[in-house]
Write a structure and sequence with these properties.
Shape: globular
Helix content: 10-25%
Number of helices: 7
Number of strands: 17
Strand content: 25-35%
Structural class: alpha+beta
Radius of gyration: 18 Å
Distance between the termini: 46 Å
């Protein structure tokens, strides 16, 4: 084992010792500060550390954003991304990188090579998990430099959301390789939709220093201590490409489709980068 790999393993497991939620709440407070000096310093530090393409943003002036979080969840200019014209297409819900994808066999999903987790745990025990057995899944990791709004991969009517409280381990290639059941241990928000090809789930997974997760139908970001199942007070249908929500400081999106509903494109493989609205699967 190299010194670098030993330090990576040590730093990953050290996350079990830190106050994850308190640290994330503090990061959220910083990110939402509207103090000009503080928010501008944070934004410029971030721009210096990561390769951010502000030319794509609807506002390319970094100091025009009200807070760091406002900058982080920036909208794209109209026409920067183009929705696939293919009527049979399922599109990417986010900019990012495919961590894993494939078929859900025996209620198990691949987390990383040689490591799996199961549907019932991912859903916090909710019975709707069984709707996706033998179906298809894909996990997209959003890096810090990515656009951080999440959109609909396919048109659907919102049935309910399931908020599952949990840990806030960092989500990246190193932690998915080392921490068992990572996605089923971290905080997550499961958005369940009925579509023309059956049930679809879009799952937002929380992570270390992720301030919160918020959908377009919520009045405020969601963070709670107990499992929470909610149905929309009025019918809500979101079309393919419509904004679904966003992360405050980023993480991971997991998509689930039912058995025989869809198939990933042959050229989509783990490690591939992807942009929102890009065609990634076809309905059967």
């Amino acid at each position: 084992m190299t010194k670098k790999s030993f330090l990576q393993i040590l730093s990953t497991h050290a996350q079990t010792l830190v106050p994850q939620h308190a640290l994330s709440q503090f990061a959220g407070w910083l990110a939402n500060s509207t103090n000009p000096a503080l928010k501008n310093k944070l934004i410029h530090y971030f721009l210096g550390k990561y390769n951010i393409n502000l030319a794509e943003a609807i506002n390319s002036d970094p100091e025009a954003y009200a807070s760091f979080n406002d900058f982080f969840t920036r909208a794209l200019k109209p026409g920067v991304r183009h929705l696939s014209p293919d009527a049979k297409a399922i599109v990417s819900p986010a900019d990012g990188c495919f961590a894993e994808l494939g078929q859900i066999n025996h209620a198990q999903l691949i987390q990383a090579k040689g490591m799996v987790y199961d549907l019932p745990s991912l859903f916090g025990g909710d019975a709707t998990a069984t709707d996706f057995n033998q179906g298809q899944f894909a996990t997209i990791y959003l890096a810090p430099h990515n656009y951080h709004r999440v959109h609909m991969p396919y048109t659907g009517r919102l049935l309910k959301t399931i908020y599952v409280p949990g840990r806030l381990f960092s989500v990246n290639r190193m932690t998915t390789d080392l921490i068992p059941n990572l996605y089923a241990r971290n905080e997550r928000l499961i958005c369940l939709f009925e579509t023309g090809i059956g049930p679809m789930a879009v799952i937002l997974v929380g992570a270390m220093i992720v301030g919160s997760m918020q959908t377009v139908w919520m009045n405020k970001p969601l963070r709670a201590k107990h499992l929470q199942v909610d149905s929309p007070p009025t019918p809500l249908t979101l079309n393919q490409g419509d904004e679904l929500g966003h992360f405050s400081l980023g993480s991971t999106v997991i998509m689930l489709f039912a058995k025989d509903a869809s198939q990933w494109l042959a050229n989509i493989q783990p490690g591939n980068e992807v942009q929102v609205f890009e065609k990634i699967a076809l309905i059967k």
